[in-house]
Amino acid sequence: MKKRLTIALVAHDRRKADMIDWVKYNAEFLSHHHLVCTGTTGGLVKKAFDELGVKADVECMNSGPMGGDAEIAAMVVRKEIDLAIFLIDDLNPQPHEADIQMLLRQCRIHNVPIACNRISADLMISSPLLGDPTYKSSEPSYIRFDRKNNQ
């Protein structure tokens, strides 16, 4: 049986409509898991579930510019996040770019899958490995590569 996951949902302002559409499309799957969102996104996610009449466990952090991205990054470091969906507005500058990069970096360092567009999010949540208690991913290896000896 698949375990209950903790899934982070983050979306920049110009990607929030896309996130809500994705959440509604995947409401059945998401309703079985604990969702951790940045503030405004979380409020919209709760509203979407209410409109669908679906019960969901949604926890809201601060908004991204007020530290929500950093709060979720800290959860990643503490191994409290199983998957992150972060719909980023790549076309406009963000005032909290350092926090955004920190969240992305912590997911990479701590081997937390992170999807930055809808198709990768769909592929991740449909993977039979997601939440499979028998699947054990390897920890990232950061050993020095010797170019001279190709080792």
How would you describe what is shown here?
- The chain is an alpha/beta fold and 151 residues long.
- It has a five-stranded parallel beta sheet with strand order 3-2-1-4-5, sandwiched between helices.
- The protein is globular and about 60 Å long.
Please specify the SSE layout and strand pairing:
Blueprint: E1 6-11, H1 16-25, H2 27-30, E2 34-37, H3 39-52, E3 57-60, H4 68-77, E4 83-87, H5 97-109, E5 114-115, H6 118-126
Parallel strand pairs: 1-2, 1-4, 2-3, 4-5
Helix pairs in contact: 1-3, 4-5
Spatial arrangement of strands, main beta sheet: 3-2-1-4-5
Main sheet specs: 5 strands, parallel
Q: Return residue spans where pLDDT drops below 50 for at least 5 consecutive residues.
A: none
Radius of gyration, in angstroms, nearest whole number? 16 Å
Strand content: 5-15%
Give the helix proportion (percent range): 25-40%
Topology order in helix (H) and strand (E) letters: EHHEHEHEHEH
Shape: globular
Counting H and I runs of at least 4 residues, what is the number of helices?
6
Strand tally, please? 5
Distance between the termini: 40 Å
Which structural class is indicated by helix and strand composition?
alpha/beta
State mean pLDDT (0 to 100 scale): 93
